[in-house]
């Protein structure tokens, strides 16, 4: 009994919570107050600790929206196609379909209106892309902008390819005489008239459509200093009907012969070029008696691919295979020779060759058995205009796109199964029914230039040719590498080497704005020196007049920059300056070669040397004396003089600042030009391209002739990089003195 009395009683079978809470009320209240103080009266579970109760289920049903719950008809609809259409496709899938699509006409446009090239997906995976001139364009490979040595080596020993589809064609159509008069309004040099062209001249071949021509497109109702852009224009080849009309005795039939003309304009100046050509056509229509000239943009219909390098013909042999010529007049007994793409090397720069070639994707397989090849003779230049290319020239003609890749893969799989004596599956059979509206060949136009060929083809055919060229060993380049190629061949590149165009000003203004934004992100003590973009070309007027007092600002704020690119235009410009005509700065393109040392960058200042500086180029001494003198010769500015060489005014314009310190003034040299394309790093050739004032160059030549008593085509100048303190000796060579025209460009 004692043991049972000591054991505690068992817990009750039922517990009254209300009575327990009333009995323990003080203890519960004290515990609640303690917890609320620690949690700041917030008893909600933290967001980081919240979990969905069905998150571990892999196939949990998604909740229907309120609209679908309210409509019982939708819930009872069991059609899988309708439910698939109602379901919104994710952004990744929509973007993949958009970028991989190949529409017949037009570029793929981004959300902000920026156009994408047909090779955008290929470039975006491998190149640094920039938004420029209304397009997403490949700037270059990722990195710090190096790799010039490898690119230039491939130019000499390999093949380079560039997607130049941002060059857009404008088509003019009308009577031949009216088209020639329209070109005379806006082009320099203007094409001669029909009566002025002998059959032996190149202009006659250009008019026949056998060659293309380079020219400068200017505004119509203004002075010749308002350049729009350099262009290439080409005529549609003369058909037999036009030739008969021209040779007939009736002059009216020759006047009324309708011709077509393409003018290729860079995307940076396309809208202004199109407006200028349309205004010229309207003006010509007012003076013509019933004759009309139409101006139609071919944007989004025709594309252009540039191939450059020493092994261009070997690359073209891999993916170019001509097919049957549609013009039966070309198939003569003399033309029945075996075709060989190696013969394209015989063509001179400027030639035009039209071919109809097979789909390059079919050349590696046996799917091209349905074609009948016709041998072609390419020995004569006149044969290039006999191929029918009306499919490209007719803006209303529909161009069939290439066969889909899925169809080609299905056919290839069928052929493999047939070789194994196996029957194709049911899923592969309907592929033959999707061939309608597609083609296995297309018409291309080849334009010969000094570096290689330009391929003109339909926009929908860019992808097959692009992938075939890349897989055949071609090296793809962007805008930066293309500029290196232009520098290597001493050819100007638009718009970088055209300061008289508005595209040049807008491009450098955008670069200057990006530089200012990146500089503001750095501390004030580590911000780089701000340089003028674009360079102040007005300061050369002050240099020519030697105004050496205080801050010099040109009196003519709207001073035009004129760059003559033919010998005749240069003579006219010199005559205007001799008569005292003002209001413009005449610049000429020069090649700046470093003397012994120096590497000139883009934007470097070309300065005029003093008479005491000319002894630095004296090579008549002994070798030991020359080496000792070159080590002693140096001319430098102080850091403060470099920072204040150009001062920015309140109107965001830059002015030349003459130093007041006697020491800085002694080392100060007057600017005569600026470097537009600097020498490329990692290259032995240290030649830069610049534009200088022709008046100061002529004065320097006379001064140096009086001192050296020797006539030399070179002119001694000093060059200083914009952020450097040291002047470097250089030799300037005027391009127009070495050749009659400076119209070629990239």
Automatic annotation (TrEMBL):
Domain POPLD: 452-527
InterPro entries named in the record: Pop1 (IPR039182), Pop1_N (IPR009723), POPLD_dom (IPR012590)
Alphabetic keyword roster: Nucleus, tRNA processing
Comp. bias (Basic residues): 48-66, 83-96
Primary location group: nucleus
Coiled-coil region list: none
Residue span of region Disordered: 48-96
Domain of life: Eukaryota
Keyword tRNA processing found: yes
A Pfam family it matches: POP1_N
Segments crossing the lipid bilayer: none
Every Pop1 N-terminal domain range: 117-174
Cellular localization per UniProt: Nucleus
GO CC, one annotated term: nucleolar ribonuclease P complex
UniProt keyword annotation of Nucleus present: yes
GO BP terms: tRNA 5'-leader removal
Protein name as catalogued: Ribonucleases P/MRP protein subunit POP1
Organism: Carex littledalei
């Amino acid at each position: 009994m004692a043991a049972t009395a000591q054991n505690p009683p068992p817990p009750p079978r039922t517990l009254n919570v209300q009575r327990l809470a009333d009995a323990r009320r003080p203890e519960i209240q004290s515990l609640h107050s303690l917890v609320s103080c620690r949690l700041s009266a917030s008893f909600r579970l933290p967001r980081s600790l919240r979990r969905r109760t069905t998150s571990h289920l892999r196939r949990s049903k998604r909740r229907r929206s309120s609209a679908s719950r309210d409509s019982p008809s939708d819930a009872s609809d069991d059609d899988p196609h309708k439910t698939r259409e109602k379901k919104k496709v994710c952004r990744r899938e929509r973007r993949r379909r958009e970028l991989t699509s190949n529409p017949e006409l037009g570029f793929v446009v981004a959300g902000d209106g920026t156009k994408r090239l047909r090779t955008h997906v290929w470039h975006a995976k491998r190149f640094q892309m920039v938004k420029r001139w209304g397009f997403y364009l490949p700037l270059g490979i990722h990195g710090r902008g190096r790799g010039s040595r490898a690119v230039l080596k491939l130019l000499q020993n390999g093949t380079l390819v560039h997607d130049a589809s941002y060059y857009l064609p404008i088509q003019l159509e009308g009577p031949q005489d009216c088209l020639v008069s329209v070109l005379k309004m806006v082009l320099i040099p203007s094409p001669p008239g029909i009566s002025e062209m002998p059959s032996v001249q190149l202009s006659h071949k250009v008019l026949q459509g056998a060659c293309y021509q380079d020219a400068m497109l200017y505004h119509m109702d203004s002075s010749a200093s308002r350049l729009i852009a350099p262009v290439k224009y080409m005529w549609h080849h003369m058909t037999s009907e036009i030739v008969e009309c021209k040779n007939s005795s009736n002059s009216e039939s020759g006047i009324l012969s309708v011709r077509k003309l393409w003018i290729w304009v860079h995307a940076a100046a396309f809208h202004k070029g199109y407006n200028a050509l349309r205004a010229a056509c309207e003006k010509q229509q007012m003076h013509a008696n019933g004759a009309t000239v139409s101006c139609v943009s071919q944007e989004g219909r025709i594309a252009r691919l540039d191939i450059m390098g020493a092994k261009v013909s070997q690359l073209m042999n891999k993916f170019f295979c001509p097919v049957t010529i549609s013009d039966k007049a070309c198939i003569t007994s003399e033309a029945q020779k075996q075709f060989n793409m190696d013969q394209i090397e015989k063509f001179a720069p400027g030639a035009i060759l039209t071919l109809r070639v097979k789909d390059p994707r079919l050349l590696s397989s046996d799917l091209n058995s349905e074609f009948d090849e016709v041998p072609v003779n390419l020995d004569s230049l006149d044969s290039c205009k006999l191929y029918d290319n009306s499919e490209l020239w007719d803006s209303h003609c529909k161009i069939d796109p290439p066969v889909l890749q899925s169809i080609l893969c299905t056919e290839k799989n069928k052929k493999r199964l047939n070789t194994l004596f196996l029957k194709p599956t049911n899923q592969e059979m309907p592929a033959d029914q999707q061939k309608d509206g597609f083609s296995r060949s297309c018409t291309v136009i080849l334009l010969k230039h000094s570096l290689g060929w330009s391929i003109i083809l339909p926009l929908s055919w860019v992808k097959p040719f692009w992938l075939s060229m890349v897989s055949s060993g071609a090296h793809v380049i962007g805008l930066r590498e293309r500029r290196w190629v232009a520098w290597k061949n001493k050819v100007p590149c638009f718009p970088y080497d055209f300061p008289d165009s508005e595209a040049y000003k807008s491009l450098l203004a955008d670069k200057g704005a990006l530089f200012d934004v990146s500089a503001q992100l750095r501390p004030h003590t580590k911000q780089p020196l701000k340089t003028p973009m674009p360079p102040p070309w007005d300061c050369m007027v002050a240099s020519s007049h030697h105004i050496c007092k205080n801050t010099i600002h040109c009196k003519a704020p709207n001073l035009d920059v004129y760059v003559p690119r033919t010998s005749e235009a240069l003579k006219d410009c010199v005559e205007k300056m001799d008569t005292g005509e003002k209001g413009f700065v005449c610049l000429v393109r020069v090649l700046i070669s470093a003397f012994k040392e120096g590497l000139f960058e883009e934007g470097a200042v070309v300065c005029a040397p003093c008479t005491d500086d000319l002894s630095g180029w004296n090579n008549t001494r002994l070798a030991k004396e020359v080496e000792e003198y070159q080590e002693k010769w140096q001319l430098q500015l102080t850091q403060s003089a470099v920072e204040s060489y150009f001062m920015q005014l309140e109107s965001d314009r830059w002015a030349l600042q003459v130093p007041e310190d006697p020491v800085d003034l002694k080392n100060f040299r007057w600017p005569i030009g600026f470097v537009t394309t600097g020498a490329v790093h990692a290259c032995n050739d240290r030649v830069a391209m610049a534009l200088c004032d022709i008046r100061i160059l002529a004065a320097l030549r006379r001064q140096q002739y009086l001192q050296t008593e020797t006539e030399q085509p070179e002119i001694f100048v000093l060059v200083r990089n914009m952020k450097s303190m040291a002047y470097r000796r250089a030799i300037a060579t005027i391009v127009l003195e070495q050749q009659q025209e400076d119209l070629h460009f990239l």
